[in-house]
Amino acid sequence: MSEHCFHCGQIIEDTQIDFDNKLFCCKGCKSVYEILNQNKLENYYSLNSKAGIKPEKRQNYFEFLDTQQVFDKIIDYSEDGLILVTFKIPVIHCSACIWLLESIKNINKNIIYSTVNFSSKTVQIAYKNESFKLSELANFLTDLGYKPVINFETTEKKPEKVDHSLLVKIGIAGFAFGNIMLFAFPEFFENEKDLWLQQYNYFFRILMFLFSLPVVFYCASDYYKSAWGALKHGVLNIDLPIVIGIFALFFRSCFEAYTGISNGYFDSLSGLLFFMLLGKYFQQRTYKTLAFDRDYKSFYPIAVTKITSNKIHENILISNLKIGDRILIRNQEIIPADSVLIHGEAFIDNSFITGESKLVEKKVGEKIYAGGKQSGTTIELEIIKEVNQSYLTRLWNNEAFKKDTSTIDSITNNISKYFVMVILIITILSGLYWYFIEKNTSQMYQVITSILIVACPCALALSAPFTLGNIMRIFGREKFYVKDALTVEKLAKINHIVFDKTGTLTINKASKISYEGEKLTPEELKNLKALLQNSNHPLSRSLYETIPMTTEYVPIKVKDYEEIIGKGIKGVVKEVEYKIGSSNFVGNEKNISSNTSVHISINGIYKGHYIFKNQYRKDLKEIISSLKNYKISLLSGDNDSEKLSLEKIFSTDTVIKFNQSPQDKLDYIKNLQDKGHNVLMLGDGLNDAGALKQSNVGVAISDDINSFTPSSDAILDGNNFAYLPLYLKLSKKALAIVSICFIISFCYNIIGLSFAVSNRLSPLVAAILMPVSSISVVLLTTLVSKIIGYQTFKSR
């Protein structure tokens, strides 16, 4: 009797190694077993009894990875001794693989973290490169049995191509279906005894059996893997009934064809899988379309300041950036694409990429990776790679900024899980009825198969993602950019809206700005403008635009720049210290303005202040009135100079608070949530970052502001602020559509089951109906979403 290796499960062909009362086929498997046990990871084998993959003999396959040219193409990020690299590993096939690959940091101290993307069969690894080469990492993975595939296509990091394996399976199933139908042709003339085709019936049945083999054992393989993977972990998924139905139909067909009862159901079986795979392909393509639309449009509102050939600054969408363009990055702005530093002092915070908040200094001529955030003065960069929208999307969806999970997803998963159990019970009872009561074994198999196929809750599972995905598209078209489908669901449950004032209710560009105090010299104004250029605060941006550019733009160096949230900015320009911000911040105790104002001090001497006569957004009173079904609060960091104006806009039961620090806003929202409120916070995305993150839904308002706020759940173009009530209304309609689709899915299954149980539905028809139901749900959600989207915004 052949022995199997405890680690990889392979038959031991040569000398066996006995260790710890277990048998191993080679030293490699024994070593991995020892490593796992030494690091207390032995429960790896409880996930999969034959968890390993037979390692290949150790060779230095990957020396070429240490060549600088190849290294630069392979890696995603390299900074300050930390490397991020993504490897394609096709042999990832189950949860044991995922678990082990995400636990390798416990095995190798040079590895910081690893994340597996099961659908793309890739693993991203962050590691320290001081004493660990890229080739050593690749060899380490190979020793574990997960050899990376590295070729020209993976180094170029091109977008994923269409899943050709699924197309091949569809082609084989379709080819087999057509031919089996042809071979079944003589059966239609069984009463014509003199027909010469009758003598070849048995031969045709053999051909039908042979043609069905690749369909059953290859085309349906994805269903088997899915069902088996779920069963191994004690889970019933929606593919299990399908698998049972396929085998029931196949073995019954084999029995009937062999015994001469009939030609079986090979034609129905092949047609069943052909139409099921077509439905799967349709779903896959639709999902990819939604994902592409999301990746491409997610960051449209984010602009960047481009420096033209005439030294003019202009805001452009990051999607319009090209290689060779020069851009200006201010304090706390995200670098949108891989770039080279041309001018300025760069201190880059890569926490969005690495999770570690640490400033890395960059010198002129050095490369800066996309996703880094500048901390300090303005820098000038030259783009060396095109903007990758999907990469920025991943940054926005960083684990650090994720909130709670979707209620709809939980409901869908629970319904699907119990639905499968109910279907299996119905199948067993129906089978027993047709076997013992009707005493019809042939019909029993047909009934069982029809029930298992027609009752697949695919349409149920598709209801929520496709509905919410389509609503996200409509929101994007109307310049409201939400992070994910969960945000749409959470918007529908909001009952309390909290507004910031500056930059949210006010239009900064339309502010009337006047100056009171000691007149500033042209040189001081020039230096003041240089300092303001580094800040993204709405008042700073307005004041920057107000101060005229007296000469052609020439970069002015600002030293010791610091921006203190909620207070102001300071820095040294040409050996002179400038402070811009609140009266307390600049050291002014006397000239405190009752209006919204920005105070100036130079070398500790108070000079004066700029007064902002805020202009509120158009039709603000009507917008607030249309939100009468929500509780509303206003939190402002300014003084109460505009209290009377705001009280005319808001209702008497609105809570209005002034002189609120960022922490005050966060605490206020947390207190509301503790009382059971679902809070929507609207702010400028800078001072309000903490409050946006704390709220159930945080929306950053964007008015030509080049700010990227991963703490927010959505970004709203300031020009579309008036549509806020419509966005909330549409989100509620979205949940109504999901509920309707749930009901339709249940009705479809009930009707289908009633026909299947009574033997009025053949397996082939059931196979056609299953993808048709999914397609109908997708078409319904798309059509209804478009209609309600059009109706919602038609009166704009």
UniProtKB/TrEMBL annotation:
Entry's transmembrane regions: 166-186, 202-221, 233-251, 257-278, 418-437, 443-468, 734-758, 764-788
- The P-type ATPase A domain covers 303-396
Q: Which GO terms describe its cellular component?
A: plasma membrane
Q: Which InterPro entries does this entry report, sorted A to Z?
A: ATPase-cat-bd, ATPase_P-typ_cyto_dom_N, ATPase_P-typ_P_site, ATPase_P-typ_TM_dom_sf, ATPase_P-typ_transduc_dom_A_sf, ATPase_P-type_domA, HAD-like_sf, HAD_sf
* Gene3D superfamilies linked: 3.30.70.100, Calcium-transporting ATPase, cytoplasmic domain N (3.40.1110.10), Calcium-transporting ATPase, cytoplasmic transduction domain A (2.70.150.10), HAD superfamily/HAD-like (3.40.50.1000)
Tell me what topology the record assigns in the membrane: Multi-pass membrane protein
- What keywords is this UniProt entry annotated with? Cell membrane, Ion transport, Magnesium, Membrane, Metal-binding, Phosphoprotein, Translocase, Transmembrane, Transmembrane helix, Transport
Please name the GO terms that the record assigns under molecular function: ATP binding; ATP hydrolysis activity; copper ion binding; P-type divalent copper transporter activity
Any one Pfam family match given in the protein's UniProt record, by short name: ATPase-cat_bd
Where would you say this protein principally sits, based on its record? membrane
Which residues belong to any copy of the Putative metal-binding domain?
4-75
Q: Which GO terms describe its biological process?
A: copper ion homeostasis
**Which family is it part of?**
Belongs to the cation transport ATPase (P-type) (TC 3.A.3) family. Type IB subfamily.
Q: What is the protein name for this chain?
A: Cu+-exporting ATPase
Write down the species.
Apibacter mensalis
| Upper classification of the organism | Bacteria, Pseudomonadati, Bacteroidota, Flavobacteriia, Flavobacteriales
